[in-house]
Sugar ABC transporter permease (Pseudaminobacter soli), 299 residues
Amino acid sequence: MSESQTRPPSRLLRNLNAKIASIPMILTAVVVFAGGTAWTVLYSFTNSKLLPRLNFVGLDQYTRLWAAPRWLVSIENLLIYGVLSLIFSLVVGFVLAALLDQKIRFENTFRTIFLYPFALSFIVTGLVWQWLLNPEHGIQSVVRGLGWTSFSFDPLYNSEIVIYGILIAALWQGTGLVMCLMLAGLRGIDEDIWKAARVDGIPMWRTYLFIVIPMMRPVFVTTLVIIASGIVKVYDLVVAQTSGGPGIASEVPAKYVYDYMFFAQNLGQGFAASTMMLLSVVIVIVPWAYLEFGRRRRA
């Protein structure tokens, strides 16, 4: 047998069929995503109105953006919504997963019930909770009908707490997915760890806090990225529940971008706002990539 026949294929030719099959996906990612992103950032420095045009105005669009009260309100709402959504989604999702991990009866039924809201679209969820939080037909009306006539619960009609009404709907829909991710992580914990903890007399809460949760770091990191990406692009719930009202009290960045690009016909301002949203996504993705790939490479 000749030397050329025994020589292993070069690194470039390994898995050649898989590399050829991935070319369309790579081209799509480069042209559509990377190209579209670069195009958006480029035109955010122009004064494009109804149609894009290369008439550069420097940072004027960003100056106007951060001077606009509507944009500042949307950023404040996103921060409140984002922080509370991260905290409650992780806490409630983990607690539900820990309860289901106790091998309770009808586990499949409970798991289906908790996960079912995630199968609904955000528009449907928003409309459902718009009705539930309606003071004339929803929770407030039911409670008052039971005799508590002074009970008041109308967050969607109160500009001070409207963002919390949207948060309730988001938690109802998204917590089930977090629960499933956490449950999968808990089921991956070796049973011997639980046995050793019981033999050593370690309380269950300490086992979860100091042993189980650190072992589930990859699950928590992945869950954080999923939740954070949903927070940045929240739009459907706001439109379905309040349309940004009362006034501009429930505005969010995604709605600001949509309104300026398609209603106000101010593409430059919409591009600037979407670029800021892109920057927030980068802030989320870069630490995740560092945690996932940086440590793995050092290991």
Notes: The chain has one domain: 60-298. Residues 69-100 form the longest helix (32 residues).
